[in-house]
């Protein structure tokens, strides 16, 4: 579910053109058959020729057995019904290769970069009239597509000027961005627009953002209890807290609340006042983090909460200060579906490729806080490569679903979290580096290299590094921050 | 307005100069709107630019919401209009009900509803409507969040009907975690950390245990059970006898719940002399009963050797 976007699943999943016909989809499903282990081995022998690494052999079926929980309750309920259906849809893809994809040296489908690039380029194109429901989500379509393309190693500079001119009429005279011309400003749109422009990364893209009005707009979202609303009078949840800090930090905005911020009337003076405590109140009895105090723990809101704390300070200090970490780890770990390997967002819910990022992306953040090597990277990568790639390009929630830019972007971001190792250099003063001023913590990350232990992806299946906090291509956040640090005033 | 008749032909709108959508050259992800949608939006931009709050503006928002319910701007403008013209808010709820049912997953509707019900200052009928919505989708996050807002706004924490209702939801699907979370919210949420009366503590422990016995490999009631023990600041060992019903290290081949094994590991970890037992439980999880999380169970094992770290 696209919680950050504030658009729930009911959006007509945007299957960007060309739209597969129903016949094509069902035909693809007809081809889903389980390959026997021997068939798999004969396919694998070709791939093994080029394999110089001595990988312990394990057939896909053995793998599935090795990660299955051998306990099943007899009582059937609505939850088990849909879970059984899901497993039925996913298993053939974990145990075989129903789409006849080319396999890597580990016997898993390769990451089909060219097909996904083609898909995302289409997603930036024109939509037919029945996509009117996406009219307020166009900033997201740009962000998801651009971010996905860069993760696949595609140079997006060809779109640079068009990104700037597309967003120009979205910016509201009173600050922030809306979903289109004449639409009211909204934090979700402001987030997607800011990140898109930072991915473009040209002076004209940076300068197209009115930082002064953005600062005032964010000031109006700050609430007396410490959190942020998504728009004036709108809902207050961890998305708002995360987005506000992402924008302040990237654009190097003043940390003081603007003079006209309503929260000043209740004695607050900075954007950070009461914020950590408010986030802490969102941790539930389950250990996970919810949209707002009292709600159910949920993966997407958890990522936003941890992202927010990762901007407030070094994760090792802010996480331990505001959260009960053992319980958070317990909850996060439990979100990995077995045997699927992908993640779900809430207890007893279904695996969905978008949580590859929402939960998968939480892991680099908690690792930076010192809790390392706790999750199963390879199981996630296996789900993404084997089950989340759509035959004709784009990535999906689960087999049988249509691809869209949202699931493509966040499956790929999750793959980055699985494939790359990061280190957090907080506290190390490096002369000339960015992030010296306020909210500089998220600029202290370093890429340590690729994950190697029992990995299941080949060299061609690696995505470009996605920044663990800002979810933009590695280097882009630093470039933007440097640009705005060197700028005087607004 | 009759279908097919556009605003530019309608005398009631003749005083408005529509503002067409400015899209720049070669916009990305542009939508080829229908003429009907495009024109309605042009009139909306115009009335919003004039800060016009009127009956006709309200009709315009209804027209656009029917074409695109996921349009937050239209909802925000609608709620502002209702406020400015002092519209009948009961009528608004009446209109919202079928609209919400038609667009089950739309979340703007729920925030709008919250604004209206807040102004109405009455929760009458809301519980029933929520129940109808959850019949269609019993884990809908926005609907449950709205229900929590309702409980808080109208102080329904200790209303017996609220507990009965959520118990019914759990009866229907004991794995519905949203329902468990709501139970927690009404029982514990209104307490601000204040001590749980003995009778309620017992009732909640019994209820979670009863639910676990129905389906032991269901994490929702286990999380609930352990949450209560923690809230009441009891040692985890109060759950020992119960947990052993489902996982006993003396019978490692007869484990009925990985969550019981997980709980057992923590019970043993609390007792300094039982660390080896805790390790055995964690080993069973890592190697047999929950192997996808082997890294985590092994991490917990390592913690046992660090005297200062208690999980």
What pattern of helices and strands is seen along the backbone of chain B?
HHHHHHHHHHHHHHH
Low-confidence stretches of chain B: none
Instruction: Compute the separation of the termini of chain B in Å.
Output: 64 Å
| Binned strand content of chain A | under 5%
Mean pLDDT of chain B: 94
Q: List segments of chain A where confidence is low: pLDDT < 50 over at least 5 consecutive residues.
A: 5-54
Strand content of chain B: under 5%
Strand count, sense and barrel status of the largest sheet of chain B are: none
Verbal overview:
The complex is a heterodimer of chains A (490) and B (311). Chain A has 490 residues and is mostly helical. Chain A has a single domain (112-486), classed as Glycosyltransferase (Alpha/alpha barrel). Chain A has 20 helices and 2 strands. Chain A has helices spanning 22-30, 37-49, 60-66, 78-95, 113-123, 138-151, 160-167, 187-200, 203-207, 211-221, 238-251, 275-281, 299-312, 315-322, 325-334, 355-358, 362-368, 377-387, 405-419, 476-486, and strands at 420-424, 445-450. Chain A has a two-stranded antiparallel sheet with strand order 1-2. The two termini of chain A are 36 Å apart. Chain B has helices at residues 35-49, 55-67, 72-85, 89-102, 108-120, 126-136, 141-153, 160-172, 177-188, 198-214, 219-231, 240-244, 258-270, 275-289, 294-304. The mean pLDDT of chain B is 94. With 311 residues, chain B is mainly alpha-helical. In chain B, 62% of the residues lie in helices and 0% in strands.
């Amino acid at each position: 579910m696209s919680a950050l976007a504030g658009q729930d699943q009911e959006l007509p999943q945007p299957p960007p053109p060309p739209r597969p016909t129903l016949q094509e989809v069902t035909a693809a499903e007809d081809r889903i058959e389980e390959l026997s282990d021997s068939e798999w081995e004969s396919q694998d022998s070709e791939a093994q020729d080029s394999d110089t690494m001595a990988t312990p052999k394990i057939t896909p079926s053995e793998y599935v057995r090795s990660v299955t929980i051998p306990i099943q309750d007899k009582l059937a309920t609505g939850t088990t019904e849909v879970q059984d259906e899901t497993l039925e849809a996913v298993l053939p893809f974990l145990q075989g290769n129903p789409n006849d994809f080319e396999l890597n040296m580990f016997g898993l489908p390769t990451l089909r970069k060219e097909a996904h690039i083609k898909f995302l380029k289409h997603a930036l194109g024109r939509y037919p009239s029945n996509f009117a429901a996406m009219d307020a989500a166009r900033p997201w379509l740009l962000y998801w597509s651009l971010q996905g393309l860069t993760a696949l190693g595609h140079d997006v500079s060809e779109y640079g000027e068009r990104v700037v001119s597309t967003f120009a009429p979205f910016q509201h005279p009173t600050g922030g961005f809306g979903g289109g011309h004449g639409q009211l400003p909204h934090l979700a749109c402001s987030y997607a627009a800011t990140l898109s422009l930072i991915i473009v990364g040209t002076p004209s893209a940076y300068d197209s953002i009115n930082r002064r009005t953005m600062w005032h707009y964010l000031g109006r979202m700050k609430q007396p209890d410490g959190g942020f609303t998504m728009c004036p009078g709108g809902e207050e949840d961890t998305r708002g807290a995360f987005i506000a800090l992402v924008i302040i930090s990237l654009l190097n905005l003043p940390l003081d609340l603007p003079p006209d911020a309503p929260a000043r009337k209740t004695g607050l003076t900075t954007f950070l006042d009461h914020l950590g405590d408010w986030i802490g109140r969102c941790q539930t009895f389950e250990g996970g983090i919810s949209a707002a105090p009292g709600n159910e723990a949920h993966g997407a809101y958890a990522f936003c909460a941890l992202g927010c704390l990762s901007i407030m300070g070094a994760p090792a200090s802010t996480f331990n200060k505001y959260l009960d970490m053992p319980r958070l780890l317990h909850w996060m770990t439990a979100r990995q579906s077995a045997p699927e390997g992908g993640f779900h967002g809430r207890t007893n819910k279904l695996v969905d490729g978008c949580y590859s990022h929402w939960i998968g992306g939480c892991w680099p953040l908690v690792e930076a806080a010192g809790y390392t090597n706790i999750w199963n990277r390879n199981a996630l990568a296996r789900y993404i490569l084997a089950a989340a790639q759509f035959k004709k390009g784009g990535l999906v929630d689960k087999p049988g679903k249509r691809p869209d830019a949202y699931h493509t972007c966040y499956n790929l971001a999750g793959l980055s979290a699985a494939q790359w190792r990061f280190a957090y250099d907080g506290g190390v003063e490096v002369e000339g580096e960015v992030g010296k001023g306020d909210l500089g913590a998220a600029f202290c990350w370093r890429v340590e290299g690729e994950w190697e232990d029992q990995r299941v992806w080949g060299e061609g299946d690696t995505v470009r590094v996605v920044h663990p906090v800002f979810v933009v291509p590695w280097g882009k956040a630093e470039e933007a921050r440097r640009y705005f640090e060197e700028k005087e005033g607004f | 307005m009759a279908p097919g008749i556009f605003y530019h032909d309608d005398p009631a709108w003749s005083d408005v100069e529509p503002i067409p959508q400015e899209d720049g050259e070669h916009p990305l992800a542009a939508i080829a709107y229908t003429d009907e949608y495009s024109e309605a939006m042009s009139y909306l931009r115009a009335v919003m630019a004039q800060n016009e709050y009127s009956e006709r503006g309200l009709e315009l928002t209804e027209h656009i919401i029917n074409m695109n319910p996921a349009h937050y701007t239209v909802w925000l403008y609608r709620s502002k209009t209702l406020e400015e013209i002092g519209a009948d808010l009961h009528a608004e709820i009446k209109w919202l009900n079928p609209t919400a049912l038609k667009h089950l997953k739309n979340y703007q509707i729920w925030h709008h509803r919250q604004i209206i019900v807040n102004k109405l200052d009455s929760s009458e009928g809301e519980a029933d409507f929520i129940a109808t919505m959850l019949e269609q989708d019993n884990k809908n996050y926005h609907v449950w969040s709205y229900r929590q807002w309702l409980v808080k706004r109208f102080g329904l924490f200790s209303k017996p009907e609220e507990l009965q209702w959520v118990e019914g939801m759990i009866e229907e699907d004991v794995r519905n975690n949203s329902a468990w979370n709501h139970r927690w919210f009404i029982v514990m949420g209104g307490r601000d950390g204040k001590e749980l009366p003995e009778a309620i503590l017992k009732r909640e422990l019994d209820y979670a245990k009863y639910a676990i016995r129905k389906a032991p490999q269901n994490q929702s009631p286990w999380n609930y059970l352990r949450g209560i023990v923690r809230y009441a600041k009891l040692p985890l060992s109060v759950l020992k006898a119960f947990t052993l019903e489902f996982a006993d290290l003396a019978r490692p081949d007869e484990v009925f719940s990985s969550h019981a094994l997980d709980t057992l590991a923590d019970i043993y970890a609390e007792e300094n002399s039982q660390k080896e037992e805790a390790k055995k439980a964690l080993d069973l999880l890592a190697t047999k009963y929950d192997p996808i999380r082997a890294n985590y169970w092994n991490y917990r094992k390592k913690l046992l050797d660090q005297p200062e770290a208690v999980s």
